[in-house]
Amino acid sequence: MEYRYIIVLGIALLSVSAIILYATYPTRPIIRVRIATTTSLYATGLLEYISSRFTEVHRNTELQFIAVGSGAALRYAERGDVCAILIHEPGLEKLYIERGAIEGQRILAYSFFVIVGPENDPANVSSALDVVDAFRRVYRVAEEGLIRFISRADNSGTHNREMKIWNLIGVSPRDKPWYIECGCGMDQALIMASEFKGYTLSDVGTYTVLKAKGRIQNVKILYGNASDDLMLNIYSGYLASGCRGTERMYAELFLDFIYSDPDIVNSFGVEEYGVRLFYHSRHYEGSILDAWNRLALSG
Amino acid sequence: MSEVFDTIVRSIIVSGIATALASLWSIPLTYLLVLRNRRAMVMEVIIETLVGIPTVLLGLLLYMLLSSSGPLGFLNLLYTPQAMIIGESILITPLIISVSYRSIRDMAKLYHELALSIGADRFQRIRLIIGQSLPGVVAACITGFSRAIGELGIAMMIGGNIRGYTRVMTTAIALEVAKGNFEEAITLGIALLAITISISIAIKLLSRVRIT
Q1: Does A163 touch chain B if contact means CB atoms closer than 8 Å?
Q2: Topology of B2-206 in CATH?
Q3: Which residues in chain A are contacts of B79 at CB distance < 8 A?
Q4: Is pLDDT above 70 for B46?
Q5: Which residues form the PBP domain (chain A) (predicted)?
Q6: Sequence-ordered list of residues with C-beta below 8 angstroms from that of A298, at least 6 positions apart, any chain
Q7: Is the model's pLDDT at B194 over the cut of 90?
Q8: Quick check: A80 contacting B, CB < 8 Å?
Q9: What is the model's pLDDT at position A39?
């Protein structure tokens, strides 16, 4: 007798789930475009903002963002798991372009890296001559045991830039007790810097957003230099070579959508945070491409 | 390679201490729950619900407590292995209670009248029940250990995944995935599984030896 109840229950469950499936099944075809992106673009909300503008025009598309580090984004593109990527790691980008994994580069936006540290600035970074000098100051004071430096250590664009600057000084901070490798995203590294009253290298967008939310009260921007290649953060969009068909068409449309309208990028966040978080490459394409090439060549 | 070894050892130590700590209060509490013989329905439901608490939620709550602007910020515990141990022991407490509760309750039912019929006093009765339910309690602790060692949310949020300090296997796997090093992540994942399985087997064997 009990078997009968189980069978009836099974049929009931099956039919209910079938009805739910049927009711939620999309009636009009929706084109899903999978895009892997660096966390900084996603965490600041820029992509959601652009995507809502894009889907107003192309109503039958659904943009799906996967926020990961630049290294992972490139791997996803190579494996064909995403159709487009938005990243900021010229050295790695060049490598994958040469491998044929990604193509159709569009330099979409740029912003700046800044050195973030405690209010009282024990390393006196704010009076540094350039970024290399600033890192040298951090190194010297950290060796005295006064401060800590938080490193992303996650193979992201920001982390690789940090490593490049240490290399220029000719020191290796790894394994130093004051050098904290958190293996985390920018937001968490900033929170950690604030907790430890330490220094870190950040992109200006993530810093601004977190600061406005009151999450990082113990740190502020101590050094920034808009005219230095090393502090320039260039975001490029690519198509994955393995992506074909309508998804590729719409991915390309999306990249062009950002590329063709400087206003979307430039206006983002101005109202909310009072400053521009990202800058569109329009009018500076040549010089930014030059800077990209220099950065890509120097690894 | 030694860095991987360090991470593995740290994982085992952190989860091991967390399990020991959690069983310190979970197991007496469970015996109390069964032996006081109250209508424990409500407790049962609450605890069984807490078993499935999302680790990131618990991690977030603990983070807000321990953060330097939080109420327990003065302890300076955030981003330390100690904080991870505390967090994970809290996480697995409901799990250990709910798994061991069942085994203790069954044994209590089974042996309560038997003990009465052979004229055992209250103390002897409790001793019999404790002895008989031990394998179930050990199994509960192993389940708790596996949950602690395989958990990511708390380790990430209040451990911080600091290399050489709070990086454990799950956060290392998450990091390798984020870096795009899927092969390394798989290797670590296999190591994690192998360790959890062998530790469980070892404890099972040990507890069986003690009983016979």
Answers
A1: no
A2: MetI-like fold (1.10.3720)
A3: 192, 195-196
A4: yes
A5: 36-261
A6: A91, A164
A7: yes
A8: no
A9: 79
pLDDT score of B176: 87
Class of the CATH-defined domain A31-110+232-297: alpha beta
Of A72, A184, A195, the CB nearest to B161: A184
Does B52 touch chain A if contact means CB atoms closer than 8 Å?
Answer: no
Choose among B160, B164, B177: nearest Cβ to A192: B160
Residue B209: predicted pLDDT: 64
pTM for the complete prediction?
0.80
How is residue A72 written in tokens?
Answer: 């992972």
CB distance A132 to A242 below 8 Å = no
Q: How many CB atoms lie within 10 A of CB B183?
A: 8
Across chain A, mean pLDDT equals: 90
**Chain A environment of B170 (Cβ under 8 Å):** none
End-to-end CA distance of chain A: 73
One-letter identity of residue B70: G
Residue A69, chain B, CB below 8 Å: the answer is yes
CATH class, range A112-230: alpha beta
CB atoms within 10 A of CB B147: 21
Write down the ipTM of this complex.
Answer: 0.71
Encoding tokens for residue A53? 């503008």
Subunit contact B79:A68, Cβ cutoff 8 A: no
Q: Where in chain A is the domain with CATH 3.40.190.10?
A: 31-110+232-297, 112-230
The answer to whether A247 faces chain B, any CB pair under 8 Å, is no
Coil/strand/helix, residue B142? helix
Which residue among A75, A192, A218 places its CB closest to the CB of B180?
A: A75
